[in-house]
Design brief:
Length: 227
């Protein structure tokens, strides 16, 4: 993700949070609507003057916008859980593994694509889903995930994808997959707070519980969790 794209993602999220259209933001900031569209599309980076104008219209400090952009860029370049380190990740994996023992097979027909560059994490999530009866496909990064969707997209009902991955990160893959199959359900997994992402993106923040993952999956696949 480029700096321009990160700025665009942050400005777009802030605007949508305030329920403003691009036209309304244009009027409030005294900036051209096309210019705002280019910023949100990652095609243009705001100047210092336009940054202050946007911040004022969005009722935030310019430094807040810059800080969020830095968080997004750090998120994309990160390859590990940002909070707690490897000890937290190992404990989280153990929790997922232990949950499989009590899994009740549901015989689901929806195929789930699991995308994570960490082999152990990917394998554990796949085994958890198989224990609950979900057919599973695997991909080691965003590039492989996009290719799988191109080849087998009609057979995939849900994608569970880590954000921080090499070659093609989860956010980049998310947008490419949505272009290929707009209706495909996608859950992004991140160690960062979900507030930095667009509101329409479904985020599970690490470390999440197996129950949280399964409940979100059932809701997105159109089935309520068993009572």
């Amino acid at each position: 993700m480029t700096i321009e794209e990160a700025f665009g993602a942050v400005i777009r999220r802030l605007r949508r949070e305030r329920k403003l259209s691009q036209e309304q933001l244009s009027l409030a900031s005294f900036l051209d609507r096309t210019f705002i569209s280019h910023i949100e599309g990652g095609k243009q980076q705001p100047s210092m003057v336009s940054l202050f104008a946007l911040a004022s219209a969005l009722n935030v400090l310019p430094s807040d916008i810059i800080s969020e952009v830095e968080i997004v860029l750090n998120l994309i370049s990160s390859q590990r859980l940002p909070k707690g380190g490897p000890g937290i990740e190992k404990q989280w994996i153990r929790n997922l593994e232990s949950h499989m023992k009590g899994a009740q097979l549901e015989e689901r027909s929806e195929t789930v694509l699991v995308v994570d560059d960490e082999l152990q994490v990917r394998e554990v999530i796949c085994e958890l889903l198989r224990a609950y009866g979900f057919p599973v496909l695997e991909a080691e990064d965003g590039m492989a995930a996009v290719q799988l969707v191109k080849e087998q997209g009609e057979n995939i009902s849900l994608v569970i994808m880590d954000v921080a991955m090499p070659r093609k990160n989860g956010l980049e893959a998310y947008h490419e997959i949505k272009k290929l199959r707009p209706g495909l359900q996608i859950i992004l997994v991140s160690g960062y707070h979900s507030g930095i992402f667009d509101s329409e993106v479904t985020i599970l923040q690490k470390p999440f519980s197996p129950e949280t993952l399964l409940t979100q999956m059932r809701l997105m696949l159109g089935a309520s969790p068993p009572g």
